[in-house]
Amino acid sequence: MSEEKKEEPKKTSTKKEKIMTRTKKEKEKMSKNTKKDENLNSDKVREEKPEVKLLEGEEQKVLEYHDLDDLITKYKKLQESNKKDKEALIKNKKESDSWKDKYMRLQAEFENAQKRWNKNRQNLRTESTGRTLKSFLPLYDSFKKALDGDDENKAILKQFYDQFISILKFYKAEPIEVKINDIFDYTYHEALSSIEKDDLPN
């Protein structure tokens, strides 16, 4: 009986050993599985890393929260500044238009003054030439009288007369034929003396 009892615990110990060996094997398997899972997870993390890098490269958009009253006050301030800007723009446009009008008027006045100056200068030149040529009219009359007479030197005088007339023509002074009873024209004629006649107009 005693021998049989001793053998029984041996059997139980072998069972325990088997259980222990199983648990060891299971632990090894578990550790292997966990290692595999870790390797898989690490691979996944490695695969996901580029995406994380891309996300890091992008700008982060942060949502801002504002109070409604603050937004209303800001909106009103913007409206007021916009209104002031519009008023300033209208004022500046009016000033610009007034300066433009002044500039146009000054330009027109300058052009008119330049025209008047040119006209006055031309008139002065004409008057000066006229006064100079007028001083030669007595010489012209002397030539005419000498040529109308019976002078021996008439041919020589004719040459001087022709030369004198060519000088007058150069300055656009030509003799005007005036007949008796012609109407007096203030543009071309100059009265040297006057005689009253009833049959002629004033």
UniProtKB/TrEMBL annotation:
Stretches the record annotates as Disordered: 1-52
Signal peptide: none
Coiled-coil spans in chain: 68-127
Pfam families with a match to the protein in the record: GrpE
GO biological processes: protein folding
Keywords: Chaperone, Coiled coil
Keyword 4Fe-4S: no
Family: Belongs to the GrpE family.
Name of the featured protein: Nucleotide exchange factor GrpE
